Amino acid sequence: MTSLPASTPPKQLGLVIDLDTCVGCQACVVACKEWNTGGYPAPLSDQDPYGADARGAWLNRVHGFEAGEGADGMTVHFPKSCLHCADAACVTVCPTGASYKRDEDGIVLVEEDKCIGCGLCAWACPYGARELDGVSKVMKKCTLCIDRIYNENLPEDERQPACVNTCPAHARHFGDLADPESQVSKLVAERGGFDLMPEMGYRPTNKYLPPRPRSGGTGCGGTVPALEDADPAGGFLGWVDRMLSR
Amino acid sequence: MHPAPSIIVFTALSGAGYGLLFLLGLGSAGGVLPESPAFGGVAVGLALVMVSAGLVSSTFHLGHPERAWRALSQWRSSWLSREGVAALLTYIPAVALGLLWVLGARGGWTILAGLGTAAGAVVTVFCTSMIYGSLKPVAEWHQPWVPPVYLGFALMTGALWLMLVLALFGQPIGGLGLLATIAILLAWGLKFGSWRHPVAEGRPTPETATGLGAFGTVRMLEPPHTQSNYLLNEMAFRVGRKHAERLRKIAVMVGLGASLILALGAVASGGAGATVAAAGAVVAGMTGVLIERWLFFAEARHTVALYYGEPAAA
């Protein structure tokens, strides 16, 4: 159904993404595509994948931004996927009931057999989290790897989204953001995790951790440690230097 | 936003059809329209053809048109679903009105069918406008002017079409001339209001989109993909804005200026002259609305473009 859950879901599963440690390697993007193109829904197709105009449907993309000026400027790698919002307008605008938010864990999913491919949910999402597949013509979005996280055929430590599982920098964390005692909630509290575009009022579940403050004095304007002295005055090296300089 | 021809044609054509149905419904209930079965059949038939062509055109936009029937199920939350339901329900009184007119029936049932048709037309056009008006990520759409503008243009184009049908049947245009004049001025007045509506205030910026505003201004360094994708094709359309000012002027000159002059010409002249002028007014009015509708999409900026290097709106 395209109404949002009547009461707040007991669990609110989501991601916490650390913009401080993300190195922009795109491993999460590839791992996501690899897992989700072979899962229960229709494949994530590409068009002209080896040609000049390669394009396709991806559920997770890493943007690159610059923030600040000069020595204070920073490069930020910025992964973005569905934020599984509490007030998910993509769900309520859906005319067919294909888009829904699960009562039990707050995950937002698309039932592809009901999707008419009207694209209204993608318009309703301020974050650009939904992409229409070029072949199956149904809407694609992050499932939080629902076929991994509850999959008892996988070893327990692999029951998390493919992007989290693969991240070599540990910049992605998965857990229950409704539980203030969960690891992810503690991380958000500790590091000052924030919402994207809070003014939109969608109350996203996924949180982003800001880059940590840079330690001072190492930028372009800072002092560079001097090379070691080539004319040592005293001690053993000074004696060797004096002897050999004769 | 990408101006898909199927949606532009749909909203313009079905808007005109519902505008015509609204006037036919009220006019027949009020007994101010010709009672001739031929006139009723042609006028209601024309309106239903426009409405149906518009609805069929809208399904061309779908990835799975064969599942379109499912869109009638979620009227509790979705304006698109409500529009579908309202459009289908409006067929009932509208078809009844057409049949009663053709059969020469008078009184109770005709009045009921007329009022039902008029109400259904208003509700359907309002639902269409709210599909766009309810979308928060597009500030140009998420503003109070959008529903009145849609209703205004439906009334305007409906009045112009009715004028043409009256002229074709050699009927006096009479009071409809005044109504059409008011509708043209009203529709464009509302449109000027929506164009002047401030949309920059409180709107997301690259800083709030990324949450990195505390570190300074945010700008794109690398896009996440080398070629285009669905998001950019669908929601980051920029070509239209380049010529927006000029297109607005053309839309006003044709849709307001030319259609008003031709409508007044149709009132002033009689016979074949009235038919030609009324046909010209329909062409001018519809052209103006098509350009206006194209701009409605092309000028609308979606927040997702902020992630692709679009600066904050001025």
SSE layout:
The complex is a heterodimer of chains A (246) and B (314).
Chain A: E1 13-18, H1 27-36, E2 46-47, E3 55-56, E4 60-67, E5 74-81, H2 89-92, E6 99-101, E7 108-110, H3 120-124, E8 131-132, E9 139-140, H4 146-149, H5 162-166, E10 172-176, H6 183-191, E11 207-209, H7 235-245
Parallel strand pairs in A: 1-11
Antiparallel strand pairs in A: 1-10, 2-3, 4-5, 6-7, 8-9
Chain B: H1 5-29, H2 37-59, H3 79-103, H4 108-133, H5 146-168, H6 175-196, H7 206-210, E1 218-222, H8 230-235, H9 239-242, H10 244-268, H11 271-298
Helix pairs in contact in B: 1-2, 1-4, 1-5, 1-11, 2-3, 3-4, 4-5, 5-6, 5-11, 6-10, 10-11
Structure description:
The complex is a heterodimer of chains A (246) and B (314). By secondary structure, chain A is α+β, with helices and mostly antiparallel strands. Chain A has a single domain (13-209), classed as Alpha-Beta Plaits, CATH 3.30.70. Chain A is built from seven helices and eleven strands. The longest helix of chain A has 11 residues, at 235-245. The N and C termini of chain A lie far apart (92 Å). The relative contact order of chain A is 0.21. The mean pLDDT of chain A is 92. Chain B has helices spanning 5-29, 37-59, 79-103, 108-133, 146-168, 175-196, 206-210, 230-235, 239-242, 244-268, 271-298, and one strand at 218-222. Chain B has eleven helices and one strand. Chain B has one domain: Formate dehydrogenase/DMSO reductase fold. Chain B is mainly α. Chains A and B meet through strand 3, strand 4, strand 5, helix 2 and helix 3 of A and helix 3, helix 7, strand 1 and helix 8 of B. Strand 4 (60-67) of chain A pairs antiparallel with strand 1 of chain B, so a sheet runs across the interface.
